[in-house]
Amino acid sequence: MNITDYTSGPWKAKDQWGYIKIHSKDEGVCAVHGLGVNSQANARLISSAPDLLQVVEDYVLLCDLHDYVGAVPDAARAALRKAKGEV
After folding, report:
1. pTM for the whole thing?
2. Domain boundaries defined on the chain
3. Strand runs (DSSP E) across 1-87, as ranges?
């Protein structure tokens, strides 16, 4: 998967009839079933994915430019590889 293959953000979460719809301004992204506390939290996390991805990409770029090493940069690189489908 190319990292740009996902639906462009921002994404928003909206309660529907018994589920939460995650959508961009142009299309639906996914649905979280249920309306409980866990479902609401999951929907918030999913809808923030494009923003979080951008932050991780920027952080990894900064680490690479300044040769930062350590557990946190390694974790950010691993998360980015996961988002890209490389793991």
Report:
1. 0.85
2. 7-47, 49-81
3. 12-15, 19-23, 28-33
